[in-house]
Structures are given as C-alpha cells and as structure tokens.
What does this fold into?
Amino acid sequence: MKKILILSIIMLVFISEGVTASMKINKLNLPETIGVWSRPESSKKIDSTNIFKYMNGAGELYLGYRFDHLEVFDYTSKNSGNILVELYFMETSDDAFGLLSLDWGGEPVIFDNTPADSLNDSIVSWSMALYGAGLMRIWSDNLYIRIMTLNESPDSKQAVIALGKAITVNQTTPLEPKLINSLVPQIDEVWKLRKNRLSFFRSYLALNSIYYLSHENILDFDLTTQAVIAPYERVLNSGKKTRCQFLLVKYENQERAQKALNNFHSLYLPEHKKTISNSSEDNLNLFKIEDGWIGYKLINNYITIVFECPDRGSAMVLIQNNETSLRRNFGK
Amino acid sequence: MKKKNLTITRRDFIRGTMGVAIGTSILGLSWPMNETNAASPSLVTVVRDKNALDTSKNVNIQILKKMFEQALINHTGQKNSKESWLSLVNPDDVIGLVPTDWLYPTHDEVVDVVKSSLMHAGFSQDKIRLAQGSPNSAKECDSLIAIPSLKSHWLTGIGTVLKLYIMYSGNPSNYHQSNSARLGEIWNLPFVKGKTKLVLVDSLYPLCNKGPQADPRYQWAYKGLITGTDPVAVETVCLNIINKKREAIKGRIWPLSPPPICVEAADKVYGLGTSRINEIKIENFGWEHDLLL
It folds into this structure.
C-alpha cells in the first residue's frame, strides 16, 4: 500500500511537471482594449503548416528556431491605424532569446516586473524588450513577441509598451542560453567581445543573415544544434579598428561535430590540407585566405571557427582562450 | 551545357567566382552561360514627387498618375501613354499585372494606376487581369507587367524584382534555401520567358533591412516609381537605393547579408539583363531630396 502511494505521488509529480512544461507560458493577459485600440475576441493561429501562407519566406526565420506556433491579434482603431501583436511560442527560452538576438537595435524598455539582477547577468546586460519607431520586440521566457504600429505617435507608443507589459507580467524571467557564457569578454586586454552584436541561432539561414557563409548548410545546422556568433574588436594605438567573427557551435555528439567540420573544410577551404582530430595539440587549423586568417578547432562535440583575423597569432589566441573557457564551463 | 553543381560560399562572392558555382538549374532549364554584353545601356527611369504620400502615408492618386505617365513616356520615348503602351504590348494581348500581393505588398493605388492607364490607352478591361500567385496565372497571359514593392529580404538580400515571380515556380519554398541564388531561372521558364514588357517598382515606401516582415525603423518615404524593361538593371538600381539608405542610417557602409547574389546570377548566369552599373543609364525626374542614386 505504501509502495502504491509512493508510486502515485511520483506519477503525480511527473504529470504536473509535464503540464507545467506544456503550459510554460503562464496565462497571457492580453487586454481587449488599450487606448483607442481594440482586439478581436480570438487570435489568428499560425503553425508550421501555414506559416509561409502567413508570411512567405519570413517563415523560414522562425522555423529555423524551434517554432511551435504563432498567435496574431490585430488591434484596430477608427483613426489611429492598427497595432499588430504577434506572439511566437517557441519550444524553449533559448529560441526566443535567439530571435531577439538577431537585432539588438532599439531603445531598451524596462517593465516594472523586470528583476534588477536579470539586467546584470553573465557577460552582458540583456535587454529583454527593445523599442524603435513603432516596433517593440520582446523576449519573455519561451515567447518572442512583436508588437508593431506603422503609425507611430505618442499614444501608439504608449499603447505598444503597455501591451508589452501586460503580456509579460506573469511570465518567468528567463536566463540566456548557457552556450554564450563560454565566450570570453576580453582577451589579452586587446580583443573585446562586441556583446551588442552577439547572436544565438540554430539555422544556417539565420547565420547568413548575420554573417554570410554559404548558400548551402555547410556546417550541418539543424534544430538540435546550438550556435553563437559574435565579433571581437581590437582598437590599435592609431585608433584603427579591426574586427573578426567568432563562431561557436555545439552538436549532439562528437561524431556529428567532426563530420560537420570535415564538410566545412572540404567546401570552404578545399585548397588547404586539414588536420581534424580530437588531439588538442594538432587540432588547431589556421589558414590565410582572401579576407584574412581563418582558424578552427574541434573540441569534443563543439567546433570553434574564427574568421577575418588580421594575423595568425590573433586567430590562435582567440580560439585558445575561448577553448579554455569552454572546457571550464562545460567540463570538456 | 550543364556544369557540376558547386557550393557557393562567401569566398566565391569575395573572389567574384559565383557564376561558376551556381551550377545546374533545379528546374532542368538550360540558359546562356555567357555574360551578356549590352549593346546599349539599359535605361531605368526614376520619378519622385514629395507630395505622392501625405504624412499619414496616404497615396495622392492624381500625383501618382502623373508620375507613372512621366515614367512610361520617358522610358519608351513616345509622345503619350497610349503610344507608349502600344510600343510595349500587343493590343490583343491578355495582360497580367503582377504585384507583390502579401507581406509588404505593392500599393493598390499603383496597380490601379497601371490598369487605368492601360484602359485609357484602349486596352480592353477583359484582357487585363491580376496574374500573381500561381504558374497558371502567368500561362494565361501573353504579356506581364511586373509591379513589385521595393524591399530588402532576409533570405536573398533584396526581394523586389527577381523574387516577384517566385510563385511561378510552382514550389516557392524550393527557393528559400540553397537555391535562392537561382531566382533568375524562373524568369526563363517557357511560360514566363519574354513576356515581361515593363517593370514598375513601387518605391513609395520602401524597406531597407531584412524583410519581408515590416520594420518601421528601416522604412522610409522615398515617394518614387522606378521603371525599366531590363529587370536586372531595375533591380540593380533598387539595390543601390537600399544600400545608400542603409549607409545613411548607420553612417557607414552597412552591407546586406546575405549578399544579393541572385542579382549577379540573373545577369551572368541567366542572361536576363545587366547588373553592371556602368551599363545602366538612370534618368530621374522630380523630387531630388535624398535621391540615393
């Protein structure tokens, strides 16, 4: 009897965890009216089967993250234009963060319910809501939100921000993807990570929109991969700035990482001899190509690649420092 | 002649070897692989009027009509719009108007102005139809008037002229990913090739970053119409405008990513026109503020 009771309790815990996971977005509080704008009773629902019909090729952006579904509310008014509210329900908070991270432009908006410590976490102070010219974009747990008016005015701006606040008021404060914590903010007091240019993604199409690499998926991205790209910048005594791009990708396992890197080398660096093994000594590959030095390294199920370095030494230093950080953070 | 399908990379773009990497058509077409050498420059006409839109972005129809008439007459070199149309289109043709119809659409007023101009020139209303959306729409037409809206695109850099016919492929999502550089081949489909008599770009309120989702930070009132018969030349001029606006916003060169490889491919691989600015003659009329040319 005791065993049955314990088992029942365990089952109840698992069931409630499942319910919590599927209802991770706490009940949204979307007002029926805001200022002179009012919304229809129900939303328009979009999923992966009709997303192209709704937004043509823009749908690939969201499918490139772990998109679950989209709910659209069109707030209308008599004379003040519309306010479009798009609620992108993603599978994880990382994916919602990723969508916001593709563009850090805009004025940060602090909602009253934003805890102070979420503004000072890890390597950056993340703005979870950004506003510009009538468009507000928000990362709220596993929700990515776009609220947009094409007729910006003081009233519509107020309404847009108020809607953002109302939608997010009951949501949990998210943490940024763990992967980005590996990136070293400053190296040798020379190379500084440009935090406001950092992006998290899973798709090569998203990568191309930040830093074009290839029309093919040469690094074998899919929804199981995690990647972060960010520029490092060096300012010389002359005041001249040099910038290179640092890419870190996490795969499901080492075999996939190795295969992806082999493919990348074959297609991107076919004229150069490669050394890809898991031995840390001979695993760092550095080559001079048209736009500078490129370097890469396989670290178990991770790969690191640095592009457009001004010299061999910089490429080496950027990869080695980030490798040390990666091993420290993930016990690799 | 079919070429081995090579992978296009950033390095091809930097080295200018993209044409070799484009490879075979996904539609099984053959096309001229030689670079087209323009016998004479491709003419692109830009007409703007500062009152084309009011502060609420409403279109002034009367001004728009005048702008279009000026663009059409200048482009064809004829005396009036009737003779202009007759120099472009056969009077018995079924004429398809092809606007951008969804997510950053062409202004309805621009489509209406084209339609009413055709009717005023004596073309039968029965033979003028909207032809966007499916291969059959193009198959039923003898002539096409391409009327895209000016916008950048997150998948192809620019999503204006060349992307307009993507629905004619029958499977537009085929061109979202690795084949996005091959948009030009759709223009060479047997039921599309040679039918486009005029390209008119609605540049009243363009978008210069990402797209096709709107972003008011990167939209502005250019208040223009851009006309030509060389679709690649028109696209190139549009690209110039987008790039110059981006530069004005950031205060530095702000390259599109991904780069608009489809434009160069449309020229060098598919032979649709010229992407070389020195082979394009741009004539502009009207409002010159922030011309971006």
